Request: fold
Amino acid sequence: MRIDKDSKLVVLTGAGVSAESGLKTFRDNDGLWENYHVEQVATPEAFLADPELVWRFYKQRYFQLNEVKPNPAHHALKKLEDYLEDNLWLVTQNVDGLHLIAGNKNVIEMHGSLRTCFCSRCHQNYQMVEVNLDSAIPLCEKCGGYLRPDIVWFGEVPYHMGRIYNLLQNTDYFLVIGTSGIVYPAAGFLMIAMDSGARTIGVNFEAPRNASMIDEFHSGKAGEILPGLVERWIGQ
Reply:
C-alpha cells in the first residue's frame, strides 16, 4: 500500500506507544498505575477528597518525563507528518507530550498533558515549569484556588471531541497505534472512521478489543514495526 500526499490521515495513539519509551500505564497491572489504584488519583472525586495525594502522584509522573524521550514510533509519525503535512492529524490519549517533542505539530492531546495545569476555581492555565511544585498543593497566583493537573480524569469529557469527530468523518485513512480498544470514547473512533469510508489500520502488540473493525492489522511493537511501514507507505 502507498499513501498519496493528497490523502487525509488521522492517527490515534495510546499507552502502548508511551510504554516503549519507558512510561507505565494503569492497564499494565489490574488497574494499578505506579502502584496506585486509579480511583485514588484519576477522578475528580479523588482530587476533592485528597488533593495532596493526587498532586504527589502527578508530580512524580511529571518529573519522570525528564527520564524518557521519543522512541522510533514517535519519530516515524513525525516522518509521516513531514510527508503529508496538514493532511495528517495525530490524536493521542497519552499525556506525556512526546509526540510534540518528536516534532509533530498537528497534535490533539485529548486527555490533557502532564506539562500543564489549571486553577480549579478560576480556570487560569499554567505551564508546569511556571508552578512552585515544592508546595504540597500548588495555588493559583490569580485567585488563590487549588491548581489541578490538566488531565482528563475518569468521568470527565475528553478535550476537542467535536474537532476529532470532524476529522474522523473526513479522513481517507485511520491509523490506530498502541491502544487497547477498551476506553471510550476513543474506542469508538474506529466505528466512526469505518462508517465514513476510511481504510483502518492497526499497529499493536496484541489485537485490540475492537480489532474486527480494522482492515489491516500489524502485530508487534510499534517502535519496531512503524518505521518500516511508514517508509513503505510514502514510497521511501
